[in-house]
C-alpha cells in the first residue's frame, strides 16, 4: 500500500512542478521546478519498487 501512495505523491509533485513552473524564467523557478521533478521521479521509482515487493510477498503466501 505504501508503494501506491508514493506513486500518487510522485504524480502530485510532477503536477505541482508543471503548475507552479509556469512560463516564468528565473533562477528560482528553474531550481524549484528541477527539485520538484527530481522528487517526483524518486517517489515514483521507490513506489514502484515497494509495490513490486508487496505484490511478490502476497504471491508467496
What does this molecule look like?
This protein is mostly helical. It is built from 2 helices and no strands. The protein has helices at 2-21, 27-60. Helix 1 (2-21) runs antiparallel to helix 2 (27-60). The longest helix is centred in the last third of the chain and has 34 residues, at 27-60. The chain is rod-shaped. The two termini are 17 Å apart. The mean pLDDT is 89.
Give a brief description.
With 61 residues, this protein is mostly helical.
Shape: rod-shaped
Please give the largest β-sheet. Answer: none
Helix percent band: over 70%
Report the count of strand segments.
0
Structural class: mainly alpha
Q: What integer value in Å does the Rg equal? A: 15 Å
Distance from N terminus to C terminus (CA atoms, Å) equals: 17 Å
Order of helices and strands: HH
Oligomeric composition of the shown chains: single chain
Unreliable residue stretches: none
Mean pLDDT over all positions: 89
Q: Count helical runs.
A: 2
Tell me what portion of residues adopts beta-strand conformation: under 5%
Amino acid at each position: 500500500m505504501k508503494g501506491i501512495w508514493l506513486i500518487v505523491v510522485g504524480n502530485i509533485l510532477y503536477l505541482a512542478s508543471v503548475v507552479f513552473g509556469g512560463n516564468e524564467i528565473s533562477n528560482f523557478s528553474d531550481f524549484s521546478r528541477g527539485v520538484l521533478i527530481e522528487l517526483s521521479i524518486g517517489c515514483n521509482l521507490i513506489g514502484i519498487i515497494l509495490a513490486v515487493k508487496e505484490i511478490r510477498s502476497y504471491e508467496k503466501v
